[in-house]
Amino acid sequence: MQIYLDHGATSPARPEVIDLMTEVMRSQWGNPSSLHWWGERSTMVIERARLQVASLLNAEPEGIIFTSGGTESNNMALMGIARQYQTPQHMIISSVEHSAIRLPAQYLEQHGWEITRLPVDCEGKVSPQDLERSLRPNTVMVSVITAQNEVGTIQPIEKLGQICRNANVFFHTDAVQAVGKMHLNMQTLPVDLLSLSAHKFYGTQGIGALYIHPLIIKKQSLVPLNLGGGQERGYRSGTQAVAAIAGLGLAAELAEKELVNEAQRLKKLRDHLYALLDDIPDLIATGSKERLPHHLSFYHQYLDGRRLVRELNYAGIAISSGSACSSGAIEPSQILLEMGYTESAARNSIRITLGKSTTEADVEWTALAIHQILSRY
After folding, report:
1. From CA 309, how far away is CA 144, in angstroms rounded?
2. Do 304 and 348 meet the contact criterion of CB atoms below 8 Å apart?
3. Alpha-carbon torsion 351, 106, 210, 240, what sign?
4. Residue 242 falls in which region: left (phi positive, over 0), alpha (psi -120 to 50) or beta
5. How far is CA 311 from each of CA 226, 305, 307, rounded to the nearest angstrom?
6. Which residues contact 111 (CB under 8 A, 6 or more apart)?
7. How far is CA 14 from CA 151, 204, 357, in A?
8. Has 325 been annotated as catalytic?
9. Contacts by residues 327-331 (CB-CB < 8 Å, ≥ 24 positions apart)
10. At 51, phi and psi to the nearest 5?
């Protein structure tokens, strides 16, 4: 029996997405920058996908810029804003950001920028009051993750964004884990820049997008990282990956149609799994009750998280220890350390993320396997 419960790392591409991408590669493979019929056909594919992604976010289509994924989108947001300034300024991030935010911020810090890292409470949440206190006259940007990838906690994005808007400071959010799992409305959320990645909601790896608010586009406040042919309104030069973009668009359209019902279904399964594991005294839940609908996270008081991952893998069940980008590392989870947990707890963390293929039987079998494994220790 094979059970995949690591959708936070990547989700399998939907059959519909694979079929569409295959068809595009067969018959709509022209260069979108070309003026002839072949190029125009590819341009139509791209613009349809732009509309589909914009619809999922209730955003303006011209604000959707296609990228290679979440990491590039995050770098575009931070470095693109930073590069418009001749002298270093001040930027704020949370202490529980993905490395695709932490490391660009670290790079800026090494080049003279002042970086404030907002602390979080034991649930992994940023305090809006801490953000207000951290703003300075030379603060130009704030970046806070929408939903933390390791512990699933959803941040108070609306409050944080409004504080930034009141202070005339750009607000970016890494929504890679959240898009397709929770409702995000760019018409009402005070968000200037938002990153997403297709492979988190059943598109393919290697394609994503950065949402850019119309005012940023109008004022040309974001400096492109790559110079070249001027594709994607000049923000992301390079011949577009037409088939992958088509797949992202379809994945976004299907996610929008299914979002409400699927989120309810996953939340029910998630809570059922929590209940089935509740009688294991040494398995401690982490994160907040305000969390992604498909996401569970724990630490074991005595057993290394990677060991439990390996034991479950032998049983045909895939989960992860921390985030996928750091699960091979020996160091304890930086996220749990920032939340106030001990090094031991941070080393013993696991993450279980459900998906479209997850059934009640999968959840119950996984709970049984975890009980049996932990009974040996």
Report:
1. 29
2. yes
3. negative
4. alpha
5. 44, 10, 6
6. 88
7. 26, 9, 11
8. yes
9. 327/9
10. -65, -40
Token output for 95: 């202490």
Closest CA to 54 of 239, 215, 213: 213
The CA-based dihedral angle spanning residues 67, 73, 75, 78, taken in that order and rounded to the nearest 10 degrees: 130
Any bridge partners for residue 3, and if so which? 317
| Per-residue pLDDT tens listing for the chain (377 residues) | 799 999 999 999 999 999 999 999 999 999 998 889 898 999 999 999 999 999 999 999 999 999 999 999 999 999 999 999 999 999 999 999 999 999 999 999 999 999 999 999 999 999 999 999 999 999 999 999 999 999 999 999 999 999 999 999 999 999 999 999 999 999 999 999 999 999 999 999 999 999 999 999 988 899 999 899 899 999 999 999 999 999 999 999 999 999 999 999 999 999 999 999 999 999 999 999 999 999 999 999 999 999 999 999 999 999 999 645 554 556 789 999 999 999 999 999 999 999 999 999 999 999 999 999 999 88
CA angle, corner 166, sides to 169 and 171, nearest 5?
Answer: 35
- Helical spans, DSSP H, in 83-195: 99-110, 128-134, 157-166
Rounded to 5 degrees, what are φ and ψ at 113?
-70, 150
- In the set 115, 167, 325, 337, the catalytic residue is 325
Exposure b/e, 195-211, CB count within 10 A at least 16 = b: bbbbbbbbbbebbbbbb
> How many degrees, rounded to 5, is the angle at CA 260 between CA 264 and CA 190?
115
Positive or negative: CA dihedral 82, 235, 146, 329: negative
Report the alpha-carbon distance of residue 119 to residue 13 in Å, rounded. Answer: 36
- For residue 154, give the DSSP letter: B
Q: What is the CA radius of gyration of the chain?
A: 21
CA angle, residues 261, 267, 273, in degrees to nearest 5: 140
Q: Residue type for 145, please?
A: I
Rounded to whole angstroms, how far apart are CA atoms 347 and 229?
A: 46
**Is the CB of residue 194 less than 8 Å from the CB of residue 210?**
yes
Per DSSP, 127 falls in state: P
Conformational region of residue 208, where left means phi above 0, alpha means psi within -120 to 50, and beta covers everything else: beta
